[in-house]
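Suppose you are handed a protein chain with no further information: no name, no annotation, nothing but its sequence. What can you learn? This example shows the usual starting point.
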Amino acid sequence: MYGKAKKAVLLIFCLCFATAWPTISATTGEEIQELQITFDQEDGFFSDMLLNVSGDSTVPLTSIEITLWNISMPEQWSSLVSSPYLNSVVPYSTVGSDVTMWSWEHSFNVTNIDCTCFIEISFLDNTDRLSFGLIVYAGNQNHRPVLRPSSFVDPNLHYSTQIFSGDSIELAFDYLLPPASQNTAPSELSVMTDVRYCPAPYGICSENYSSLSVGVSIDTEVDLSIDINENSIFDGYYLLQIQIQDAYLALSNNLTKHVVVDTTPPEVQLTAIDSVNEFEPIVVDIDVEDGYIESSFVITWTIREPDGSLRSVSDDELSGNNRIEFTASKSGPYTVNALVRDIGGHLVTVSHNLTVANVEPRIVVRFDGFEIANQSTVQLPLDGTWVFSANETTDTENDRDTLEYFWYVDGKSLLSGQSYLLSSDVKSNSYQMITVTVLDDDGSSSTVTFQVQQLTRDTDSLSDSSFYSVIALFFVLATGLVVLLRRRALSDSGSGFAKWTERAKGPKN
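A reasonable first move is to predict its three-dimensional structure. Written in structure tokens, the prediction is:
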């Protein structure tokens, strides 16, 4: 039973493609050949005894199956006749071409058969069971209308979701009427329609079907017009079921259509920080609400930089569907723009202005490993050889490699372009003040100024005198301490206390 149900679903699929036959490509070496079977007969033709069909094929029909299906009951298809081969297959070449084609013929005896039937030719060596078919009416009973997707629509789009953003849903379908109804020109009165819908955000109905009020026009197709406001259809995903009924009250098959109604633009809110320091991360979030489950949208980001240039956002700066994260290499005003487009085609643009503040460089000047404070005094060695280094000056990563250094001696510019100053760079024999300024690419600077004192011989002699004075003072103190201790010892000996002496060993007198 499961196998028959599965095959019935497949046949329904084939039926909907009855007039717009699908094709595939088969590749052999460098030759590409399109797989196609056509019928000489038209859909809906009538036969009451011997059913003869014929047509052409672009490929050999060596591994096929031809089946006559009874589709009088749309939900209960049954196989009437099946054969693994055709009555006749003859190869031929078209005039002026080397392309080989195959003409084919086959017959079914339908003397005792009354049905709405479907003839299917399937390729057995194709894993997708590629099929081609034709609808026929056999006998005089069990005939019903057949409803199919429009032949003016690409077959690949027949079962795709269709999007509507206006005030109405416009649909068109091909239809076939039984022989008894074909003698009368179809009209809105002779062909009735029944259209039902249900919310289907995940592809299946979440509620029961409800009937719709529909405008109908019957000509070569059945044209339906569904007023969204009149039927109170809100934005969302829906399943439509369409069915027609002829003048004899025979019902057609149900045709299902997936649609999306999206008539209103989304609500968009963009949030981000108003100001950051240079080279700090900037995170921008966007919140989109389109009003229904499973809505989708596309965001296009752009950033206007301080120089006025507009750039797109790189893949590395995208962080999820609704967020970007980037770092600003330049200080100044930035504008982040987001263009949001929903599946209904509605466009909403939002923007956010923020300011990126420049970080001033922090200058660090060292001499003999010690950091020099601003307005301090540094004593230079007697030999006159020294180095002042500003190599440890810091700034943000984007400015670090572009820092410029300027050195001044006694207020006059000495040199630039290097982060250190050597004693050999100074040509003057007498100078008192050195200034170093560091400038980043945004024009911000940091400065340190310090006094210098050059040691001389007199200053050195004075230092030696001080050393000897300290030594002399030490000896004076040491001598005084010795004298004090000696006097204390002498004072202890004259204090008047009797001293014990050893008794004589001889006898007393």
